[in-house]
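Just wondering, can you check both lines?
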Amino acid sequence: PERHPMDVLSAKINERGWQQARIGVEMDNYWFSAAAFASLRRHLTEAVFSDATALVNWQRAVKSPQELAYMRRAARFVERMHARILDKAEPGLRKCDLVADIYDAALRYDPELEAGGDYPAIVPLLPSGADAAAPHLTWDDRPLQSGEGTFFEIAGVCHRYHCPLSRTLFLGKPTQTFLDAEKAVLEGMEAGLEAARAGNLCEDIAHAFFGVLKKYGITKDNRTGYPIGLSYPPDWGERTMSLRSGDRTVLRENMTFHFMTGLWMEDWGFEITESIVIRDGAPECLANVPRRLFVK
């Protein structure tokens, strides 16, 4: 008969005399299946199961010095990836070929870091034109075109620790819409970063950023960031806090976030983001990539 890995785990729990214990399981988890839970309940009939979704991730919210060291290494990889994009991107280059270059920059061993890159939890995202109205679209084999903006949402990874970073590239002369978006987003980011201090709340960052967008007549009704760290596919977010109105989680030193200020409008999109470390004062931006709309 077919066996499930949880059958083996249940046997180990029984061997240790924990069959009547209270056992936490992550009911809303990418990797814990209905079949896994059914196996546990079938073999551990006296146990009390409790939903412990995100319990471990909450314990990982404040990063250790070693974790931050890995994330800083990941930042060096994402810097290298964006430099490769600016070097290679041009009208006529197929997106699939550009992604091959991005992965090359992301993974090759770096002698200075004494490390190679890991695969990211999310593949490189680079929608152009009207496709950029929606986030999280994967690439295709179409060529880049002059007169279009493309945002690149990518992450460097070291020992599974992620540093996401997005920038937008316009091929040709940018439209006024993109120039206005750049101005609003950059001003809003400065306000949000000023609020990103230990002791403040998650929603303080969102309110600061959204307040600036409102001044420019832009409405963004989703969150503007999330915690990051160690991740596997399909997501590099930790699925705990959100930088959104109503999230009153207190920011603590050495928490890490992807400050996601993306705009996804009717027929275009724009992203300039930063991965940050919370400090008592101004936050640390992990990566050093010019914060602006790139034009080529």
